[in-house]
Amino acid sequence: MRSSLTRRGLLAAGSGLVAAAAVPALSGCSSLAAADSDPETLVIHTQLGTTAPGSPTYLAALDRFREENPGLGVKNLINGDDLGQVYETSRLARKEADVVMVNLYDKTLAWTDVDATVDVRGYLDDWGLRERVLPAALSAWTDDRDRLRAFPYFATNWPVAYNRTLLDRAGVDAIPTTGDELIAAARKLRAKGIAPVTVGGNDWTGQKLLAQIIQTFLTQEEARHAYTTGDFGSRGARAGIEYFTTLRDAGVFADKAQGLTSDSMTTQFNTQAAAVQSAMSSALAKIPADVVRHTEVGGWPVAEGAAHSRPTVIRAFTLIGFWISPNGVRKIEHVEKFLRFMYRPDTVARFVTEAGRDMALRTDTVSTGFPLVAAAQRLGSDVSQVLLPDVYVPPSATQPLITATSTSFTRGTSPARVRAALESAYRSA
């Protein structure tokens, strides 16, 4: 897979990274002066620290780490969705942070290839931390050249949340497990003025649900091929697209879903304006207690002839990892202290109990304060797992796929046009 970074000329493999005239100006960004050259200061670049789930726990953990290591300075840099761009810009100036906490998605897929970050497999083994990591997480973070891109940390379950009270009010007796049952439930909900399935059809949440539904008729190998190559012409992919458009045009999704975002989706479900949402575990953890009490989790209903015999969910282990930069290699003894601290069972347990996070690490701690997160973990054989496409989609196709998603959620768009929009996202890459 060639990197979009390489194509843009921002990063170059072989000789490390080189500056280019195409580097965008980032207003308000201090990344170019972010990394501390002091060898006794560890610089961490993270998305945790604002409203992201787990931020208070992370900041408290950082305070404990400072207390336990009084001679070591710690600088914490925080960015949101622009972290990838900010990090790349700072790396071009050789002023990048020592450790980066971010998911495996879009830009970050190329970082190890272009020497923006280093293979951490040797460190994982040398520090005796391999046994702390779930085997599936190690596999997910390993690239096709057997390099471990980062130390795995957060995972996620992505089930479907059903508001039992709203379903009962509409006369829906059971959680839908088939497409026909879902369509029938949607009609009853609409008759009561309740939106059926809310989804951010204009952002990543819609993209993930669309991918999940398309995979109804695909094996994992077939799904991997489709999302790696952008070829949605197989019989299974076409059947999945047709299944999606059938559900859409039957009124299963909330009105004007093509314009909704993840924020509007969660607002609709959390305020009980909608009965169903596809919700990753961090979203489940934020559902209000009065809604949690009558919410059940399950999978996405399947159709006759599906490749899956049970409703589907997405499970992924690539939500947040600890990446080590070339600057971090120069302070590797400090990085080791930090990673050992973050991998400690007591630190991991607090993310589970305080923030309801799913972890890519072994832990016996249960999310007792987040019952829907725990319920999703217990689904087990009641559901079938489909792929999270993020690690297969070429970085340059990621944003075009969001546009294709909005087109797909627009009622009346034919299956052929949905397929064309998806494949066009890859051709424009």
TrEMBL record:
This is ABC transporter substrate-binding protein. Pfam families: SBP_bac_1 (PF01547). Keywords: Signal. Residues 1-35 form the signal peptide. PROSITE patterns: PROKAR_LIPOPROTEIN, TAT.
